[in-house]
Amino acid sequence: MKPAKRTRRQSQARAQRSKRAELRPIGVIRSSIKNRREAPKQGSEGAPDAWLEVHPAVAQALDGLKPGDELIVVTWLHQARRNVLKVHPRSDPRRRLTGVFATRSPDRPNPLGLHPVTVREVAGNRLRIGPIEAIDGTPVVDIKPVLCAIQRP
Amino acid sequence: MKPAKRTRRQSQARAQRSKRAELRPIGVIRSSIKNRREAPKQGSEGAPDAWLEVHPAVAQALDGLKPGDELIVVTWLHQARRNVLKVHPRSDPRRRLTGVFATRSPDRPNPLGLHPVTVREVAGNRLRIGPIEAIDGTPVVDIKPVLCAIQRP
Asked: ipTM of this predicted complex?
């Protein structure tokens, strides 16, 4: 009976693992911004352009992208704190404590960053994009074409 | 020496775990759409309103949200396939195979859904939102106020 039990337990563990929402980085940001202190709060607030290096294993998923395209780059804000539920908006202590879901604070239960950018250049598995406030080394988890600008009334 | 070694190995494992980009659902979609076949491709294509139930442990992160707010709800598309790198856009076989990063296909390495919605009602830890094409039971991983509409030129 023991081997059968172990097999069942193993396959349950496998099912559990595959259900888990674990992000696999598909690339990384290469930027002149080296730490959180240097980063503007939003890309539109004076952020530079940066390179997005896509891992060779998924590079064919870039096929169809071209300069001028508007994208949402989704990052994993690896330096953020996940146990923060309320913040002063824009770190201004005069503004009242507000739930992180009503703000764009990087500190939040799942620290995902959404960055609207324009593609400047496509060079193999690298995209020149901007403006973007993400710091050097930030993992990228998804890239999507912008819909909101054209589909919202 | 052995206990010291084990402690070091344990703390390395702990560090590894904490670095891993593992999403923790913060809520769930309760919708009249029960499967992928019934779901429109985008919220703006005839999707209904739905309830977003936020887990009590993080409900205070909703503080500040009110009816009329425009949000991006980020979901984990738990029924999507993660090994798809190219698709025919909008499942139209006449359109040429395109990299998933140039499309909004739910099948992609990290199946995150971005849903622009309007808040209709706030009822404790539940938000009535819409229109949204996500199916019933879809895990929600983040909620952010819309910036793109007001900040993009």
From this structure: 0.85
